[in-house]
Specification:
With about 450 residues, this protein is an alpha+beta fold. The protein is built from 17 helices and 16 strands. Helix 5 packs across helix 12, helix 7 runs antiparallel to helix 9 and helix 9 packs across helix 10.
């Protein structure tokens, strides 16, 4: 006899039982509703891309996390690690078929070979939404507004969205003569919440490697520490970045002011905090950047993040197309909500189960089921006349709220008994129309 293969999944990967997948599916449906309400349309891209497409504008840390291999045709390929870089390739490849501004959403799996931990997996779902073809405060604001709206629709309101502007940070680095190492400094500062201020200081001093490294490090820490409120932090950033004499810094500061004005006009300003330490680790961000934290569980990290990436599509085309977008890490968000016990559990989509009391009535049961479905009821017919305890046990595990019992004499009269499986209340001798009315509440 052949040796049985032990059923198991790779570390950092998971199976999803119906209750978990239903929960994830329902969240995706609500997010889709949010994206569509802002005029975003869906696209899809391959899970495999040429490695040069994914990694041309990345750092060493990103390359370490990518699942990369040579396919059967000898091509150097990799699994996508996010949905933004494939989107940039998509825009470049289909530019003549698109219209601008173009607003897309994409809900799909991505893969990263990082160390698995709470809320972090090697295979996970991202929900991206981007607008390309407009470099305006309005487009930046729309993404931020949609972030808040989308999370609200899935019942996540106790959040803080922390934002900043890469352009201001880069202007500040020019002021302290450290712009030659800006990307490395940005990535180091991005680790502040993960490794703490002292370790960031140590790494910055080593990175700067100059006589006044400690003094420059102190200035960097002062810059990213922020102030007590949005306006005070904005004033500090303007001052330290030399906005009064730096046109790029002044433009970036004005962009933040314009976005702030739109937030106030929309009545959502209290959700947003100006935090200069938010830099985002990926190289392609050039303007506003942001991360979203659950107020009751900040330790899990950002559950929705993104920013402006004016030059990303330029890697694949000569024309410059501005873009701004965000991504909801759905699996990390779900992990956080599970810890907060803030998720509803469902084991099926059914409203009612038609129990099989007599196999000879199977055709009648299916006719009743068809009638109920036409009235918008999710219904299932138990396939065979097993003992009632067995049938009840199955529907209890599925969490079905109602059951229908039809005996031969009921079938002759075209009526039924509807039972609320939670309260045990019964409605006897009713029609399918009445049953549908009760089920719908």
């Amino acid at each position: 006899m052949d040796t049985l293969i032990q059923p198991k999944v790779l570390k950092g990967f998971r199976d999803f039982l119906p209750s978990a997948e239903i929960r994830r599916t329902l969240l995706q449906e609500k997010l889709t509703e949010a994206f569509r309400s802002y005029g975003f349309v869906p696209i899809d891209t391959p899970v495999l891309e040429y490695s040069e497409i994914l990694l041309r504008k990345s750092n060493g840390e990103t390359e370490k996390q990518v699942f990369r291999f040579e396919d059967n045709g000898g091509r150097d390929v990799a699994l996508r690690f996010d949905l933004t870089v494939p989107f940039a390739r998509f825009v470049a490849e289909h530019k003549v078929e698109l219209y601008f501004p173009f607003k897309r959403y994409h809900i799909a799996k991505v893969w990263r070979g990082e160390k698995p931990q709470a809320g972090r997996y090697r295979e996970f779902v991202q929900c991206d939404f981007d607008m390309v073809g407009s470099d305006s405060a309005a487009s930046d604001f729309e993404i931020l507004s949609l972030m808040k709206h989308a999370l609200h629709l899935i019942g996540v309101d106790d959040i803080t969205i922390r934002m900043s502007h890469r352009g201001v940070f880069n202007a500040f680095l020019r002021q302290i003569d450290a712009s030659d190492k800006s990307e490395d400094i940005l990535r180091t500062v991005d680790k502040l919440a993960k490794i703490g201020e002292e370790e960031v200081k140590k790494q910055l001093v080593e990175l700067l490697a100059c006589d006044d490294a400690e003094a420059k490090t102190a200035k960097i820490i002062e810059f990213v520490s922020g102030k007590e409120n949005f306006d005070a932090t904005l004033a500090m950033m303007a001052d330290l970045s030399g906005a009064a004499g730096d046109a790029d810094a002044a433009k970036a500061i004005q962009r933040l002011k314009d976005i702030r004005a739109m937030m106030i006009a929309a009545g959502i300003e209290t959700t947003f905090v100006l935090d200069p330490s938010i830099t985002r680790g990926l190289d392609y961000y050039t303007g506003v950047v942001y991360e979203t934290f659950l107020n009751k569980l900040p330790s899990i990290g950002s559950v929705c993040s993104g920013g402006r990436y004016d030059n990303l599509a330029g890697l694949y085309m000569k024309d410059k197309i501005s873009g701004v977008g965000s991504s909801i890490g759905l699996d990390r968000l779900i992990a956080g909500l599970e810890q907060l016990d803030a998720l509803e559990t469902k084991n099926s989509f059914l409203d009612v189960e038609i129990y099989c009391l007599d196999d000879s009535l199977s055709a009648h049961y299916q006719g009743v089921a068809s009638s109920l479905r036409a009235k918008g009821i999710n219904v299932e017919v138990f396939p065979e006349a097993k003992k009632m305890n067995q049938q009840y046990n199955v529907t209890e595990k599925k969490g079905v709220p109602f059951g229908i019992l039809i005996k031969a004499e009921d079938a002759a009269k075209n009526v039924m008994t509807l039972k609320n499986l939670a309260t045990r209340e019964q409605f006897e001798g009713i029609t399918a129309e009445k049953a549908a009315e009760i089920i719908k509440g």
